[in-house]
Write a structure and sequence with these properties.
The structure is a homodimer. By secondary structure, the first copy, chain A, is an alpha+beta fold. Chain A contains 18 helices and 28 strands. The mean pLDDT of chain A is 94.
Amino acid sequence: MVSRANEEHRLETLRHSAAHIMAQAVQCLFPEVKFGIGPAIEDGFYYDFDLPRALTPDDLPVIEKEMKEITAQNLPFIREDVAKEEARRLFADQVYKSELLEELPDKQVSLYRQGSFVDLCRGPHVDSTGELKAFKLTHIAGAYWRGDEKRPMLQRVYGVAFETEAELEDYLFRLAEANKRDHRKLGRELDLFSIHEVAGPGLVHWHPKGAVIRHLIEDLWEEEHQKRGYEIVYTPHIAKLSLWKTSGHWDFYRENLYPPTDIEGQEYIIKPMNCLGHILIYKTQLRSYRRLPLRYAEMGTVYRYERSGVLHGLARVRGFTQDDAHIFCRPDQIEDEVGEVLELAQFMMNVFGFKEYQLFLSTRPEKYAGTIEIWDKATESLRKVLETRQLIYKIDPGEGVFYGPKIDIKLKDTLGRSWQGPTIQVDFNLPQRFNVSYIDRDGSEQLAVMIHRTVLGSMERFLACLVEHYGGNFPVWLSPIQVTIIPIADRHLDYARAAATELKKEHIRIEVDDRSERMNLKIREAQLNKVPFMVIVGDRELKTGTISIRLKSGEDLGSMSLLEFKEKVKTTIDNKL
Amino acid sequence: MVSRANEEHRLETLRHSAAHIMAQAVQCLFPEVKFGIGPAIEDGFYYDFDLPRALTPDDLPVIEKEMKEITAQNLPFIREDVAKEEARRLFADQVYKSELLEELPDKQVSLYRQGSFVDLCRGPHVDSTGELKAFKLTHIAGAYWRGDEKRPMLQRVYGVAFETEAELEDYLFRLAEANKRDHRKLGRELDLFSIHEVAGPGLVHWHPKGAVIRHLIEDLWEEEHQKRGYEIVYTPHIAKLSLWKTSGHWDFYRENLYPPTDIEGQEYIIKPMNCLGHILIYKTQLRSYRRLPLRYAEMGTVYRYERSGVLHGLARVRGFTQDDAHIFCRPDQIEDEVGEVLELAQFMMNVFGFKEYQLFLSTRPEKYAGTIEIWDKATESLRKVLETRQLIYKIDPGEGVFYGPKIDIKLKDTLGRSWQGPTIQVDFNLPQRFNVSYIDRDGSEQLAVMIHRTVLGSMERFLACLVEHYGGNFPVWLSPIQVTIIPIADRHLDYARAAATELKKEHIRIEVDDRSERMNLKIREAQLNKVPFMVIVGDRELKTGTISIRLKSGEDLGSMSLLEFKEKVKTTIDNKL
């Protein structure tokens, strides 16, 4: 039996060999090529080339064809160990290879040769080129030599490679599906949100249709939180920097804070977290042990600096709205509270159809506040909750926040990809720094424990996740437009509008396509907009007092009464389908 | 008949004379007093004194008594015109008066004398001290000589004066009432919000009970806006400064902007207004004349710099959430749209029981963007809407925003005081600066018109207004806690909790006072917390399966079934009572 680690090693070797095969193919086509580096990467490989002309996507099939000839020849990969001097002569006209060679400390270096191609390489490789059976070149990108923007720009050709054609097919299908589902693309097509260079990268503007989805999620979120004894609060977006010095954010998290601005001689920053505002509210009164836990919830928009290079649509942004809450409790309440948060998180994941998820317990990072004793205590509480509930989890070493350990949940979407979801953090540190306390049964003052938690993560990332999870085909209850009414001709407009008025009474989100366009065009556009129901009204419907229903899939549900349809849509929405 | 203007002039004269009478009284008590200035102000007067000791509130009745003796003597006010030289001699030991005297350009100056007191004064005054019949000294404050913090601090004594005792009584009653209703005081007592020096002045933290009220208002607001064809959007709180330079805010409004902060070589500011985000969303698509108006609504939190000295509770803050919307429309739609906003504003005022309000049309300010022609056009549209609807309004000259004129509505609360409420601004300028356009019927590109509007103003100021309007006695539908259930003894706790569970099913906001305290104390605390309904359960209720209801006014509604009570509360809430 091949172990998982062996299998991964075998695949990496195969992909590395594929890079060499691609290099050989490119050399056949462009004898003057100068080679950079060509490693295996996740799912495939790349090689950097210095070429006399820019490659275009049209070149990729030509290179692939050349590669297939090389694999058909089943050339052996031959390792040679030679003196550095000999290698120097061999790579004399390969300027990048020569540079790499000079940096090797050894006197002997290893070469790998297949057919006419030879490379400076540590290996290992597969036995012969014929072992590469399933590969595809995917795209071309520019890459500075050694990642240094002062050095020449090379052309990097990417490919993917798998053991079998079936695996490659499966991969390419998922890739195409993922591209189709890309939330940045669908976000534009479905008019959900935009990000504007003139306003600043990573700052999200929610369009009406995206805002409808967000608002529905917020309503559900608030209802569930109120049911579970949370209280909503609102706190400001700026605060004096001194507060963030007391908290430790300035010491431990400075690179993610926005630079301070001066107001009347005081430095202020835009908040990176909601916790301090909640602490200030807690501290406005003496709190009794009888009244704990207090659970403050806020859809709090926070701002954190991220380099513009790492920003990615809604998934990695600079401003985001956390579905945040802070639970102030006694030490003896931690486990119950964390357990209830887990239960709420599971409820939410279920509503949105996430069937699979992974749990991670993140432990003390390199830079941390508080004592090791406190950290151990907090980590132990989290571990205990997970184990009591017999939940399977992985340890994520050093990935805790500076003020405490956490449980992270990663959601698996319909394509099996992971998304950062809920997080639960136990914190003994901030209560100490801000003297967040309560009066215990015996009249003594005790430090409270804070639990920081989100059950969706952030509204921005959660929308990205939902868009890709559903591929833009939101369930009816979340669809920005639930029904498009399509009158066949202008004479059916009044009937269409009357139907719309009736459906709107039930808060069904309706659009009447009143343009003087052909019915088929209107249907196609409603489908592109992924509207769940199309209601067609023409002469026949007018005469029989019915409406005809079509789904976005193209399925024809035939005609029915408006009342019947209304009940059908209402039931679907009420069941969050 | 005395005209309004004459009456006001007469009152001002009386109050000015009252200031002189107070000065005479203080001189009798403190012969070494040095006088600053003593003008009439709204409702009364003050005088600034340099005294050998600090006054305390206990001094005020003593000064009042002295003043009453002076009015009883009915001393005539005598004007004397004298040469400056003579005045100099007269005020030789009055350092502040001497300073004022030197600044007068004339050779002759006028004095007013009553009894032993003489003042450098332009007048006019009433004929004699006996005319002052109704006055009261109210408080003492520090005031730098000439408002300059480098000059000596004088003691300013404030008083109020009216024509008749009845008017004075009425004023003092309203003042006491206003103090009782002060939203800062009630906000603390009812646990609605807090502002923290450590976080920064003018930055509001909404506590759970305040947030309940805000959330209810937001829900109502959203529902009414959706009904009226508005679409909700969300935009970020920071944006590049360059955007605010394009808009003109940087030129015209800089003193209210927060200082910029640098991110990757770009300056960003925290937004003072929501309009630019909405413009960016509008501009993501070509818009057709057929699809206008577009109405984007956002509960948008904005930040504006105000000197810490002018901040006042929730009424004047640095961060506030505008119930904002921007209507993008064609020029031919302005009047309909402004009219509908007025209608919505009236709807809202009605819900919250504001029966009276004043309308103001604010015109071009000194610093403005755009051409006078555009300003005239916009002002004319607003005027037309007001006049078509036969609404009574006043002109507020120069009080428009830099980008356009506006209609302001001032609400009158139950004490007859004015609160800044809804605002509607017509804007031809920002569309020009950002090229906000639409494709007209003939295929040409036309500039859209923007209408900026709020129908509550800001959530912070509106809560301040509501707290004082209702005196903290919120109607049932807005009360953070609607029902307090009071078990008489611990053995009634289960029955109390079962009743709470039943009422919570209807989303009635319940609190069970489960403390082991006496019933009377629990009732008193619920009354202090202004909870509309108290439900008392004891042996009798348990036996008969009923509950006993008491109102916060103390009125006893007797016993009824839980079902009956539930229906009663539900109906009250549904009718927004």
